[in-house]
Amino acid sequence: MYDVTVIGGGVVGGLILRKLSSYDLKICLLEKSSDVCMGQSKANSGIVHAGFDAKEGTLKAKFNVLGNKMMQKTAEELGVKYINNGSLVVAFSEYDLKTLEELKIRGEKNGVGGLEIIDGETLKSIEPNISDNAVGALYAKSGGIVCPYELTIAAIGNAMDNGADLKLDFNVVKIEKNGGIFCIFSDNSERVETKIIINCAGIGSEKIANLVGDYSFKIGGRKGEYILLDRESGNFVNHTLFFTPTEKGKGILVSGTVDGNLLLGPTAEEIENDDVSTTSEGLSVIMKKASEMCKNVPFYNTITSFAGVRAYCDKHDFIIEKSKAADNFINCVGIESPGLTSAPAIAEYVAEELVSDMIKLTKKACFNPVRRADCFFRNLSDEEKNAVIEKDRSFGHIVCRCEKVTEGEIIAAVRNNPPALTVDAVKRRTRAGMGRCQGGFCQPSVAEIISRETGIPFDKITKCGKGSELLVGKTK
Questions:
Q1: What is the pLDDT of residues 172-188, one digit of tens each?
Q2: Which residue of the set 49, 239, 316, 397 is catalytic?
Q3: Where in 301-416 does DSSP place strands (E)?
Q4: Residues 68-83: pLDDT tens digits?
Q5: Cys-Cys with 28: which of 58, 67, 145, 165 at CB 3.0–4.6 Å?
Q6: Is 49 designated active site?
Q7: Who's near 148: CB < 8 A, 6+ residues apart?
Q8: Which residues, other chains included, contact 88 with Cβ-Cβ below 8 Å and sequence gap of 6+?
Q9: SS3 annotation, 251-279
Q10: What is the pLDDT of residues 38-71, one digit of tens each?
């Protein structure tokens, strides 16, 4: 029997679980996939928004500004990379400049500090590769970047280190309530009993709410495609670059990543399924718009493209509230952009304002908020590397040459919470397979290490869960 069960292993669910793990509670997270962070948190731009875009008075505006202020400390505690690189909303016309004035006023009303409108000459001095057609920009110094999947994995791992349970491959298909206790059933006949449910299921959150008779909102899907360039192009821009928003949306962005790559995208296409394939049309749009933003974009350094599906709500704002259809059921849904930025503040609010109204919260004396990064070896000095290798020889064996990931780090990823049991799970924790060759050389070795450490037969190791087996059988 659990006190609280979170459904959905994305960044919001993960940070809520972590916050709840700081109290004397028996808690659990249910995730339908083979690993956490397999939905929209995985294919996310990783932008820590300043807070000028959301309309004043909305939950998006409130939690964006609060979350922005919390992100650096959260990332430091969890061993996650965070860079305060600042954001630029670029104007290409006089009409755009008027829109920037409106954004600045809105941001100031939302509580965003340090907003400044700069002219074209100043913009070109701090962004030498910006288009010659740019005439100015709104400069938000509090904007930043973070790795969304590292943040999610670290939050859930830290929660598990502090006593939380995680159940993977738990696809919720039925919820019953008897005498104030929820019984949650999966499609493989597993069941979990809990006093409180927090619905953080992203694209599937409408379905989860419907299972308790809550039909108060609708969730749709919006696919976004991205292009990722090699670290050789990571310094092409110094800030996160946005187009001035229009009625059609914010458009694509051009930004560095915390790991030194260059990210272009996303597109926005409403879809009725969870298709994450990329298309020539979508990638062409990204290339066209990126070339309008900057001169001579080094597309020749492209190493991969990918897509994700983002959930959006018919209420056009976050829904973070107790359900009116079922007692002790909390909806935390419609968390589209700026959801990543807002997540630390949402977690604090859900625990301290909503859960605390349903069950007594007592601080856990032994709670430890600190977690070491899964991927750390390449950032050490030579002396520090030698000291680590002297203690554990596996750190002297480089498995992924592109990203300089060691066998020791892969072993740690398999053993640490939450354990990496697929090749892609290792990739998200250590970056093994994220370099130029995209796993062409290291994938077999990663699979072999997973098999050796877990006892899972080598031919049963998958890329990303059931249906993605790497091998079909032995040839000799």
A1: 999 999 989 999 999 99
A2: 49
A3: 302-313, 319-322, 329-333, 398-400, 405-406
A4: 999 999 999 999 999 9
A5: 165
A6: yes
A7: 11, 37, 41, 42, 44, 45, 46, 340
A8: 123, 127, 137, 138, 139, 140, 239, 240, 241, 242
A9: CCEEEECCCCCEEEECCCEEECCCCCCCC
A10: 998 988 899 999 999 999 999 999 999 999 999 9
pLDDT tens digits, 437-465? 999 899 999 999 999 999 999 999 999 99
In 3D space, the residue among 98, 127, 114 whose CA is nearest the CA of residue 51 turns out to be 114
Q: pLDDT digit string (tens) for 351-366? A: 999 999 999 999 999 9
Question: Which pLDDT tens digit goes with each residue over 402-427?
Answer: 999 999 999 999 999 999 999 999 99
Order of strands, sheet of 47-48, starting from the edge strand that comes earlier in the sequence: 47-48, 144-146, 82-83
- Determine whether 259 is exposed, middle or buried from the number of CB atoms within 10 Å of its CB (0-12, 13-18, 19+): middle
**Radius of gyration over alpha carbons of the chain, in Å?**
22
Buried b (16+ CB within 10 A) or exposed e, 348-365: bbbbeebbeebeebeeee
| Residues 129, 296 contacting (CB under 8 angstroms) | yes
Strands 219-229 and 302-313 come out as antiparallel
Tens digit of pLDDT for each residue in 1-14?
999 999 999 999 99
Burial class (CB in 10 A: 0-12, 13-18, 19+), 471: middle
- CB neighbour class for 370 (10 Å; exposed up to 12, middle 13-18, buried from 19): exposed
